[in-house]
Amino acid sequence: MKLRSKDILGLDHLEPDEITLILDMARDMKKIVQSNMKRVNYLQGRSVVTLFYENSTRTRVSFELAAKYMGAHAVNVSVSTSSVAKGESLIDTGKTLDVMGTDIVIMRHSQPGAPHLLARNINASVINGGDGMHEHPTQALLDMFTMREAKGGFEGLKVAIIGDIMHSRVARSNMIGLGKMGAKVCIFAPTTLIPPGIEKMGCTICQSLEEAIDGADVVMGLRIQKERLKKALIPSTEEYARFFGVDVRHLAGAKKDVLVMHPGPVNRGVEMTSLLIDSDQSKITEQVTNGVAVRMALLYLLAGREEN
Amino acid sequence: MKLLIKNGTIITGDRTEANKDILIEDGKISRIGEGITDTADQVIDANGLAVIPGLVDAHCHLRDPGYEYKEDIRTGTMSAAKGGFTSVACMPNTNPVIDNESIVRTVIAKARREAVINVYPIGAITKGQQGAELAEMGSMKVAGIVAVSDDGKPVMQASVMKKALIYAAGFGLTVISHCEDLDLAEGGSMNEGETCTRLGLHGIPSAAEDVMVAREIILSEYTGMPVHIAHVSTKGAVELIRQAKKRGVPVTAETCPHYFTLTEKACEGYDTNTKMNPPLRTQEDVDAVIQGLSDGAIDIIATDHAPHHFDEKNVEFELAANGIVGFETALPLALTYLVKPGILTLNQVVSKMSAMPARILKIDKGDIRVGADADLAIVNLEEEYVINPDEFLSKSKNSPFKGFKVSGRVKYTICGGKIVYQDK
């Protein structure tokens, strides 16, 4: 089996059998990441470019290592030194990378839909590394990998997502992907951070932290950014922490083997307490390892699409 | 120069007359009757075709001066003529802004040289459309403007709008208001709601339009001065206008074909040709707009023809320019989506696209009668075809209606007795 599209634009575009394929492949890749010989030649002779229009450490490094562990040429295009500063259009930048022989472009962009525009205009595969508030498919896939690894599957899982749903591409991708795989997503957030119509994406909006976490298999926190204060969405991070911050005591109603997750970086004491972040239930560091494995799987599957 | 139109069915806002001949002499309609046998320089056989008043558009952007790479007066009016329009009122958000007498005269002079139909400039409400100081409306009126508007930009200060309504009325000018509360819109790029949430775009709530429509109605009611609401797109706005009209507030309103045909769902896939301001709304809003057209809350259909260059649309959705071209799709869309399903009669659509906008602009257009200017469109109401933007005469092709199957094709457009468009 192969991926149907040349691009990974979002969970919206992936079928359940493709998601399973990616997660299965990532299981094998994880062994490489955890071995002392992190060098295979699956992508030898291939070129991978990360094109990041937004700051990122973990996603960019994760992709770069994923490409390098498999022997690809990996180049990072950073915004400050690129032609972007000169006002070149996204399509022109993409075409330039394309004709230099790039096989896969990984792009992060503040504009939702930007990877879709790029993908339509270049021959290289495009992986969406996060587009505005829209999707962050590789994060959702690594989250799903982490859940499946611990829980065995998705059918009937209850995943509680707590935090800034409105601005979160991670939440959107997880909702779509988990929904496709048979899990149930419950959300809880300040009412100003619940975007209108979100329930149409297949989640249940909860009225309290307790309700969201009750019987949950996974509790996922989301980063809250200070700039939300300026937009009059929340009054203070202190008030946020008081009513929406998750602590160990909140897990009382959750499943015994509940997983605590967060896409990072975490504001300790705001979205989650340190006690929770560093607890046995926490999968937050494991998620990062899994991120490299999932990204290796994606690069491998995309590069392998044209081969027989 | 004599032109004779034989055996057409005359359809105006208030009457239908089958099998009529229309004789045109020196740019005017000289006779209407049956079996006119005068020799003419040219005879058009309109058997089986509808002869309607040349359409009047109260809201378009010709982009001239300043943005001729998008459209100019020549191509814009050729595009309008192909759509059956013979009179268009163009918005002042050009470069420079049409906010003083000399620019009005420049536009009118250029139109006299290059336009194939009648062009009526709309002047700015405020200098440079900055929303602060009133533009010289009186002098612009002397030069030929038919209304004032800061279209594209709302007048955010209520005090300025209040004084604009009063001052404009003193010169017999109607203020056309682009209703958008910029604070509520927060720089969004599509309707706030389910689709927007899914696409991760920044939303524009329908309340941004409703709040401003409510303000204009209150100011119009308070001052007793007329206001015309541009491009109504929300259920809330339709209801506010309906209630205001019941109280006798001198408010009129327009909508555009995209607001009675498309919903926010069209934005899926980030097609920038579905991006306009106000944005495409929900099915509930579309239904309300249609109801408003039907019960008279909405007086007229305007195009908001807003040409943009390919490069300005071939970018990220939130960076793309707002607006779509509309001249060449307005009539067939109205016929297909309003007349065919029986929402409006043919006469009502013709009225809302000719006589009524002419009345709002206070120009003597929109009727077929002896002595009137010979501004006519001859239409095959039955002809079905698929919209293909590549065939547009506009310089720009930014239309969300590519591939739509419609009925009703303009065969001839006659302006001042001259054939200005003929379908080949």
What does this structure look like?
Chain A is an alpha/beta fold and 308 residues long. Chain A folds into two domains: 11-134 and 288-306, 3-Layer(aba) Sandwich (Rossmann fold), CATH 3.40.50.1370; 137-283, Aspartate/ornithine carbamoyltransferase (Rossmann fold, 3-Layer(aba) Sandwich), CATH 3.40.50. Helix content of chain A is 38%, strand content 15%. Chain A has eleven helices and nine strands. Chain A has helices at 16-33, 58-69, 90-99, 114-121, 137-151, 169-180, 209-213, 227-230, 237-244, 274-277, 284-303; strands spanning 47-52, 73-78, 104-109, 125-131, 158-162, 184-188, 203-205, 218-221, 259-261. In chain A, the strands form two sheets. In chain A, strands 7-6-5-8-9 form a five-stranded parallel beta sheet. In chain A, helix 1 (16-33) crosses helix 11 (284-303), helix 3 crosses helix 4 (114-121) and helix 5 crosses helix 6. Chain B has 424 residues and is α/β, with parallel strands linked by helices. Chain B has two domains: 2-50 and 372-422, Urease, subunit C, domain 1, CATH 2.30.40; 54-361, Metal-dependent hydrolases (TIM Barrel, Alpha-Beta Barrel). Chain B is 32% helix and 23% strand. Chain B contains 14 helices and 18 strands. In chain B, strands 1, 2, 3, 4, 5, 16, 17 and 18 form an eight-stranded mixed beta sheet that branches. A five-stranded parallel beta sheet of chain B has the order 9-10-13-14-15, sandwiched between helices. In chain B, strand 7, helix 2 (101-114) and strand 8 form a beta-alpha-beta unit. Chain B is globular and about 65 Å long. Chain B starts with a strand and ends with a strand. The model of chain B has no long low-confidence stretch (mean pLDDT 98). The chains are: A alpha/beta (308), B alpha/beta (424). At the A-B interface, helix 4 of A face helix 6 of B.
